[in-house]
Write a structure and sequence with these properties.
31% of the residues lie in helices and 33% in strands. By secondary structure, it is α+β, with helices and mostly antiparallel strands. The longest helix has 11 residues.
Length: 125
């Protein structure tokens, strides 16, 4: 079950490196990451297969997870239009997306408040 974990950090050199090291030292593989900076702070989203292990590794490093949730990860073929096709399916099902990013190995991560509807729209039930 994939989880999107959010960590809020100070926007300073080495902050992301410290997080990546803590998670890798715990043997947890980062399947994706995206970072959004707003001046002095950064919101880091990381995709992990096991939230508990990553959360524990971060806690040992004195870093807290501010939010976490299950997300839907879809394996795709890397080609033009694939994101348009999938988001059209989601829209036709009346699902509002509030998170989208690309993961390793040609996968797209989707988040919605209506997780069950999102799974159904993307054939992930």
């Amino acid at each position: 079950m994939p989880f999107d974990l959010v960590v809020e950090l100070e926007n300073e050199p080495g902050a992301l490196a410290d997080i990546a090291k803590a998670i890798s030292d715990a043997g947890v593989n980062l399947a994706a990451a995206t970072c959004l900076a707003a001046d002095a702070s950064v919101e880091l989203h990381i995709l992990v297969p096991h939230a508990e292990a990553a959360r524990h590794a971060l806690a040992i490093s004195h870093v807290g997870v501010t939010r976490e949730r299950e997300v839907v990860v879809v394996e795709v073929q890397d080609r033009p239009g694939v994101l348009a096709d999938l988001t059209r399916q989601v829209a036709k099902a009346g699902i509002n997306l509030d998170l989208v990013y690309i993961a390793t190995r040609d996968r797209i991560v989707f988040g919605s408040q209506d997780l069950d509807g999102l799974k159904a729209a993307l054939g992930q039930t």
